[in-house]
Each structure stands twice: as C-alpha cells, then as structure tokens.
Amino acid sequence: MSEIPLHLVGDKEISINSEMTILEAARKAGIPFKSACNGQAKCSTCRISVLEGDEHFLPRNPLEEALSLRRSFPCSVRLACQTRISGPARIRRMILEARDLEDIGDEALEAVGDEIKCAILFCDLRDFTPFVENNLAHDVVHILNRFFQHMGEAIVENEGEIDKYIGDAMLAVFHQGQNPALNACLAAKSMYRRLQELNPHLQKFFGLELKFGIGIHFGPVIRGRLGHQSLKSLTGYRSYKSPFSPGSIPSTHSPPNTSLRSSFEPAKRF
Ligand code: FES
To answer: How many Å apart are CA 14 and CA 23, to the nearest integer?
Structure first.
C-alpha cells in the first residue's frame, strides 16, 4: 500500500496510507491528537483545518457529515478520526494550544455529552427551614446527614445513583437495570418506609418529624459534565424528545405532606 505524505503544520510531516484515518496516522507518528470521544464522531476535539490538497480528501462519511452539520463546520474543517486521504495534503490541528484546552476545558479529556433514557427522582424536605433557623448548625447537619444516609440506601439498593444534594433536597438518577422507572418507584417506596423508621428517633431527640415530597419522571435526557473548570458536575437536560426538564421536577407542587408524584408510562404499572 503506497505511503502518502501528510504535512501537519506546526508538527511535522508524517506518512499515511489510504486505509488509515488521519488520527490513526498521527498517533502512529507520536503526535498527541485530542479525541475525547475516542473516534466516534461525537466530540469534534480531533478537528483539523485543511490547508492544501482538499481534492485528496475522501468525502465525509455519514457520522462526520452529521456532526459537521450540527456544528456548522465549513468544508475545510474535517474530523481527523473519520477522514482518509488519497494524496498529499497540508493540515493544521485545531485543538492545539494550552489556550484551546482551557477554552474547552475537560471536554477534551472527559467523555462528551450523551443521551440516556432514565428515571429521575427528586426528593425534598417539607418545612425544614424553620428548624434550620431555630437550631444549632451541628444538629441541622447531623439530621440532614442521617436523612441523606437513609434515603441514599433506598436509592442505591434499587440501582439508582445519587446525583446531587441541593440544600435539604436530593436528586437521583436511575438508568441501570431492566426497568429504571420501576426501580425509581421502588426506591421511593423504600424511602417512605425508611423515613417512618427514622422519625421516632428524630422525634425523641429533636422534637422533629420529617416530611418529604418526591417527584419521579422518566424519559430521554441529555447528560454531560458541565461547569467552570474548578467545579464540574454531571448535569441532565431535557432532551428535545422529553416532556420534562430534570431541573424542574415539580415535587414542590406536591401537597404539603409526604407525597409521591410520578408521570411516566412504566410507572403506571407500579
Ligand atoms: S475524536 Fe471525537 S470526533 Fe473525532
């Protein structure tokens, strides 16, 4: 198979053949290309700019075409992980400098966003603010930690993942197992039972009875790590196919006592 010279401006001239992608050839030559999605045409961190020899570039495959359309890339921008050439060319890596990496942050180093079908469970305490205002910080933190510990057990034992705590609220995601929606409902049921077990202790030592509201939704969600470099967290956004937003699960619209809301098809079986 004949070798083709490929000049990477700012790097060096490497050798490629028509079977290899540019990413494969560059890596073989020891050039550290970014490829956050590992060559699946999902991240565009491997993108290159075509400087010369565009007539030797094979047309975009469907994966590259789809991503290029979404990102509005001009013809001169190609994905190194998808692109093959048939003759000499000059290209430039586009994610190259430290500054480029700063701008895109961990996107270049971590998995990029994906879409999952999941159940999201949101639980928050009712009327906890007056207790916080009238009690010692130590007691407040102690009670919250006991509450989260008990509720977290219910989530984990039903294949859920605790996603985050927001004051006296918590958000959990269920996307493992055969039926994530059912798992979320089972977790909610277990949380209710565990709260009944916890309350006598809180009543005895703090004169407090906790009540919570739980909202559960199921649907497609776009998931990714978002935020400033110094703090990133996993965040879900409503997919265009989904009727709800994970950030606005309406547990606060539930009645004031312990309650459970759910709104998805599989949950109706529960
Ligand atoms: S490595 Fe992600 S698009 Fe090429």
So the answer is: 11
Is the whole-model pTM more than 0.85? no
Residue-by-residue pLDDT tens, the chain, 270 positions: 789 999 998 778 999 998 999 999 999 998 888 887 889 898 888 999 999 999 999 999 999 999 898 888 888 999 999 999 999 999 998 876 555 555 554 444 444 566 778 999 999 999 898 888 888 888 999 999 999 999 999 999 999 999 889 999 999 999 888 899 999 999 999 999 999 999 999 998 888 999 999 999 998 887 777 777 667 666 666 555 554 444 444 443 333 334 444 433 333 333
Q: Which atom of ligand 1 is nearest to the CA of 64?
A: 3
Domain boundary among 55, 82, 108: 108
Task: Output the domain CATH number for residue 38.
Answer: 3.10.20.30
Cα 45 to middle of ligand 1, angstroms:
6
CA–CA dist 63, 155 (Å, integer):
37
Q: How far, in Å, from the CA of 171 to the mean position of ligand 1?
A: 31
Count: domains in the chain: 2
Range of the domain at 135: 114-269
Residues with CB under 6 A from ligand 1: 35-37, 39, 41-46, 79, 81
Torsion angle, CA of 241/244/248/251, rounded to 10 degrees? -150
**From ligand 1's centre to the CA of 160, what distance in Å?**
30
Residues 143, 162: Cα–Cα separation, whole Å: 18
Tokens read off for 246: 């994970």
Question: Which one of 91, 108, 125 terminates a domain?
Answer: 108
